[in-house]
Amino acid sequence: xxxxxxxxxxxxxxxxxxxxxxxxxxxxxxxxxxxxxxxxxxxxxxxxxxxxxxxxxxxxxxxxxxxxxxxxxxxxxxxxxxxxxxxxxxxxxxxxxxxxxxxxxxxxxxxxxxxxxxxxxxxxxxxxxxxxxxxxxxxxxxxxxxxxxxxxxxxxxxxxxxxxxxxxxxxxxxxxxxxxxxxxxxxxxxxxxxxxxxxxxxxxxxxxxxxxxxxxxxxxxxxxxxxxxxxxxxxxxxxxxxxxxxxxxxxxxxxxxxxxxxxxxxxxxxxxxxxxxxxxxxxxxxxxxxxxxxxxxxxxxxxxxxxxxxxxxxxxxxxxxxxxxxxxxxxxxxxxxxxxxxxxxxxxxxxxxxxxxxx
Amino acid sequence: xxxxxxxxxxxxxxxxxxxxxxxxxxxxxxxxxxxxxxxxxxxxxxxxxxxxxxxxxxxxxxxxxxxxxxxxxxxxxxxxxxxxxxxxxxxxxxxxxxxxxxxxxxxxxxxxxxxxxxxxxxxxxxxxxxxxxxxxxxxxxxxxxxxxxxxxxxxxxxxxxxxxxxxxxxxxxxxxxxxxxxxxxxxxxxxxxxxxxxxxxxxxxxxxxxxxxxxxxxxxxxxxxxxxxxxxxxxxxxxxxxxxxxxxxxxxxxxxxxxxxxxxxxxxxxxxxxxxxxxxxxxxxxxxxxxxxxxxxxxxxxxxxxxxxxxxxxxxxxxxxxxxxxxxxxxxxxxxxxxxxxxxxxxxxxxxxxxxxxx
Lengths: 359, 359
Prior knowledge:
Chains A, B: Keywords: Amino-acid biosynthesis, Aromatic amino acid biosynthesis, Cobalt, Cytoplasm, Lyase, Metal-binding, NAD, Nucleotide-binding, Zinc. 2 copies of one chain form a homodimer. In chain A, 45% of the residues lie in helices and 18% in strands. By secondary structure, chain A is α/β, with parallel strands linked by helices. Chain A has 2 domains: 2-172, 3-Layer(aba) Sandwich (Rossmann fold); 175-357, Up-down Bundle (Dehydroquinate synthase-like, alpha domain).
């Protein structure tokens, strides 16, 4: 088992990475506030992992509430969040109850926000079961639900007590989701870790073949990057925004098509290529750099062109982005491969041209 | 103008108390993050104060979004909260937008939770226009909405940047709401400030006659008590729970009758008498003490008996209270007049007897 730490003073917490961790409740027990837990999962992950996980917790004397949500980004909304509150209140879960998110990014984001809001805050633990959630969304305390007018618009910064990434769960992940997760892995290389980008390029075939050692290495190095950024800037006043490379374009795709049409990682992949193209137009990347960005995503089986929404619609959707400040759109772009910046330097004409070049 | 401070390190903020403060935007400007604000009020307070307040802000060059909610505790729910998000997103309010709550406790609680959750957190300012919100709910960062299974079950601890209590707004307050506010004023005397209780008893007629100086004094001394408690225990790990004297019984009344039937302060008044009666049964208060508690609420025109829900229903509703920890109901009771404690010492039989004696 590999263990990292997210350093946030009194709210610091460990990330355990390894194979078969789900079977060992001993890893979870030290992080509970009482003997009451609520395990929240969805209709896809539940049938695979819920029963043995809950049985193991009950064997240790815990009282467990089970809540199963509908699957998918389309359900990352208030009515589904309210199913969690209904379940917790129906079972009289009190303030000492620890919520455990068992699933991918959508489950983790929703359970995190439910934990932040239930009785004004209860502890929670992330047990991410997808590559995307293991390398990105389970770490760092960003929680949210969507609003019809924008993705992740309603949420909280709320840190888990523990992240438990069981590499074995990646064995049941559909190919398309594995690839979507790789988009966020690649992102760390692009924004701040050139040696990691080199490593990914050298090991991409092993990752696609689900080599356990390669996956554990990718998860660890991704989480290490994420933990460093989050420790330096928990509430995204600065550097943390660079983790959103490709996300402003990507969110426009997700919102424009309706949530759930493209996977988040797929939208981020296309968005990263668009950001690279825009960076080239600002004179920061070479043609070869852009091709490198395009090529690694293509090799990972990810989209390298945006959805054909039309540039006007992209610009309209991007204007709703959370990174808009005082009316100005800020974008995460690349000064070089391995070095992201947050900038308002791109003109609307440049952004439009980059969108048109990549759709 | 009287000014107090809530001492919470980097998140400390002032409370300004005075007459006519609403007309002076200069008090608000230093606390804004940008020139964008959203003023959120309801259909009762809006017609009285919204137009001149917004006009004054616009004169200072601010861009103002106006959102008017339906009035009342019955609307302290998700659909109404979502009206705030709809308004903010529809007007493209970004992360630098400051939300201003103009209204009573329900508006303040909802705007606070909206501010905590919108784009994972934007600044907010409380402009309480009722006695109850000026002396209690606007200070201390408790924000929430109700759930059909319990009051204030979904929310956040989220502090405002500024509280502006304009005593002039109490001039338009219905008598019933003024009296409901007095329940929380009396509460500070009962739980921790015997000299203040003596002062209230001596000045109750002036308060009921809306004497401006007496009201300002009551608001200041109440806020001073609240600020001290919040500074010592922001997230209610201990002492802060004593502010909930009468609230566990009171919430049962509010939930049992349906939100909005009794005013919150009315339910708290009856609840405080029930808590006093229960304290007597534990041997902590004398018959005369209980009579003193009953008498001051009665003089303030407040209910001194609970709603006739039946003891079983009270106990059932109280089991949902947020102060339940690991299955045990904790109550705020009085060791003496002026000294509250949080205790699990009361047996169900005692609680039942106290309920039956007070309904």
